[in-house]
Amino acid sequence: MRSVSIAFARALLSQLHFRMLLLTLIPFVLSLLIWGLVLYLALNPMIESIRDYFVAYDGFKTSGSVLAWAGLSAINTVLGPLIAMWMLLPLVILTTLIFVATIAMPLIARHVGRRHFPGLEARKGGGFMDSLWRSASAFFVFAILWIATLPLSAIPGAALVIHALLLGWFTCRILAYDALAEYADAQEIDAILRIHRWPLLVIGIIAGALGAVPTLVWLGGVWIMFLLPLLALLSIWLYVLVFIFAGLWFVHYCLDALAKYRTAGLVADVS
Known about the structure:
Blueprint: H1 2-15, H2 18-23, H3 25-56, H4 59-69, H5 79-116, H6 128-148, H7 158-181, H8 186-195, H9 197-210, H10 212-223, H11 228-270
Helix pairs in contact: 1-11, 3-5, 3-11, 5-6, 5-7, 5-10, 5-11, 6-7, 7-9, 7-11, 9-11, 10-11
């Protein structure tokens, strides 16, 4: 795990670079335009539909009994907004992460490669369609597991643990591949992802834990509804910042692993 720690420290320093701070603006603005429009047009109708559904099927009585048993009866009064936001949250995460992966990750890889690995050959083995397939398939699994674990969110602390694990796996699945796409060939990408799967997952889970902070900001809107647009705005920016940092962490770790992999291969060939 020493390499993971070293990559973390380097990513932290890289995050403070002016270009990397500036890089957060593009995904943020794109996500803001999309989700500002969605929240403006769809949030209230979505909350009303959820309330109508619960009223029609006497859901508030059932949920009230369950929440009272758990000592969380106050949540029943804001259950509609809570469900709506938990349903929208995976889509917010997805769009933000896709914008970071498609727009920011190539720039991050070039920035880190030129500054820290100038002698590393860029073999461009990653393809856009492969990256898109990995993102789509990962999100499909992520969304199913997210919805399946929604009832556990009523347990104090469980939501944060579940969110960190799911988001960690999702982040690792997407960003680890994109971190190597610019510099490794297809065979090297497969080898690095296989050999270093556990350290990469650790990076993803820690990044997922950091991603729990924007979730807390987002869910704060349930209790202070008139601040929801501002809280949503803040949470989107925090997601972008977390994903940019995670991207830097993955790139530092993966390029270092790639450099060592190629060196080991050259030594083996000479022997």
